[in-house]
Structure formats: structure tokens, C-alpha cells
Design goal:
The chain is of the alpha/beta class. It has eight helices and six strands; from the N terminus they run βααααβαβαβαββα. It has a six-stranded parallel sheet, sandwiched between helices.
């Protein structure tokens, strides 16, 4: 079976925005009277901001107003990242390589559409760079459930088994494999051992093995 589509996660794959969203979330919680630490968010990386914020709130017994507090976090994040984000190594070149091979491309992130668009704006990537955009509001079950990657493949008009998912998080690798896709894991956020189960590994897209697209 040939690879006919590539589905990119966003954070940790196209851009390293994790420190910024963690800082924005910490500021939001501080405004609400709760002090949290960056490591509190670690187990929820890749699961979308509902779980990213909600998981930390649960651990601290904090009553979260999800819609209000998530909106405030994104507002702080938008201000914080202006002029401070850039694509991770190899992003533009890998996308160009995929296009040269006439592969269909999707961006599938557990984050809400507002964060997706902020990141693309700061990276200088037009939304039209991708054939399909899927965000966390498009699916009820978040990673590690496979729903977001299955939906991305469906919107690409492809079986998930003909897609390569590029991920950086433990939850994301689990979701990709559960969807039936091949997975290239980037070690930008977790170690290779933590990402065990992926089919291919690389530090960034600049180091992606050629066979990931040739299989």
C-alpha cells in the first residue's frame, strides 16, 4: 500500500509553541488565583486545550469555566507569540517534497481553530498550504482516540492506511496507530522510547527518513 497523504500535527511538528501555551495557561490560572507549574501540563500535551487546561484543573481541585478560561488562555497566547514563532527545521522543505510527490496534505491539531490560525499566521503558512484543516472542535473524542486522524483521512478522500501521520506526542502516536495510519514521530517533545510504537523517528522534519514517504 502506497502513501498518498500526509497528516501533520501542529505543535511540536510545525512549530514549538508548547512553552508559550504553557505560559499563557499559567498566567490564566494565576489570574484566577491558582499557581501551577509547566510540568503540570506535561501529561496532557497533544490532547487539546480542553484536556490541557481541564486535566491540570482537576489535579488541583480547581473549578474551571472551560469556555471562558480557554478563551482567555488563547487571548494571552495570541499576544505572547506575535513575532516569536518560526517553523521548526525542515518544515517548508518537507511540505515541498510532499507536494512534489503529489501527496495530499492535512493539518490535524487537537487545538481549537483559533490557535491553529494564530500559529499559521505567525509561521507565514497560508491555510491553503494544506488541502484539509481539522481542529479539536471537529471531533468529540480527543487523542489518544483515533478520531481526528480518521476524520482528516476521510476529508482527504483516503483510507487512513494510505496516510503518514507526523506526530511528536505520546497521545498523538497512539491516536495515529489506532487510526491505522503509519506514523513518523519527531522527538521534539518526548524521547524516542516514550514514542515507541511509531514506525519512523526523527529529531525534526529536516531529518525525516526518506522511507517514511516511500513505503
Amino acid at each position: 500500500m502506497m502513501i498518498h497523504g500526509v497528516i501533520f500535527d501542529m505543535d511540536g511538528v510545525l512549530v514549538d509553541s508548547e512553552p508559550f501555551i504553557a505560559e499563557a495557561a499559567m498566567r490564566m490560572f494565576a489570574e484566577r488565583g491558582l499557581t501551577v507549574r509547566p510540568e503540570d501540563f506535561r501529561p496532557f500535551v497533544g490532547a487539546g486545550e480542553d484536556r490541557y487546561l481541564g486535566g491540570v484543573a482537576e489535579r488541583h481541585g480547581f473549578a474551571l469555566d472551560l469556555e471562558r478560561d480557554k478563551a482567555r488562555t488563547y487571548q494571552l497566547y495570541d499576544r505572547m507569540v506575535r513575532g516569536r514563532l518560526s517553523p521548526l527545521p525542515g518544515v517548508r522543505e518537507f511540505i515541498a517534497k510532499c507536494r512534489a510527490r503529489k501527496l495530499r496534505l492535512a493539518l490535524a491539531t487537537s487545538a481549537d481553530r483559533v490557535k491553529l490560525l494564530v500559529n499559521l499566521r505567525e509561521l507565514g503558512l497560508a491555510p491553503e498550504t494544506f488541502d484539509v484543516l481539522v481542529d479539536g472542535l471537529d471531533v468529540e473524542r480527543k487523542k489518544p482516540a483515533p478520531d481526528i486522524f480518521r476524520l482528516a483521512a476521510e476529508r482527504l478522500g483516503l483510507p487512513a492506511g494510505e496516510c503518514l501521520v507526523v506526530e511528536d506526542a505520546v497521545n498523538g502516536v497512539a491516536a495515529a496507530k489506532a487510526a491505522g495510519a503509519r506514523c513518523l514521530a519527531l522527538t521534539t517533545s518526548f524521547t524516542r522510547d516514550q514514542l515507541a510504537g511509531a514506525d519512523f523517528f526523527a529529531a525534526t522534519l529536516a531529518d525525516a527518513p526518506a522511507q517514511a514517504l516511500e513505503w
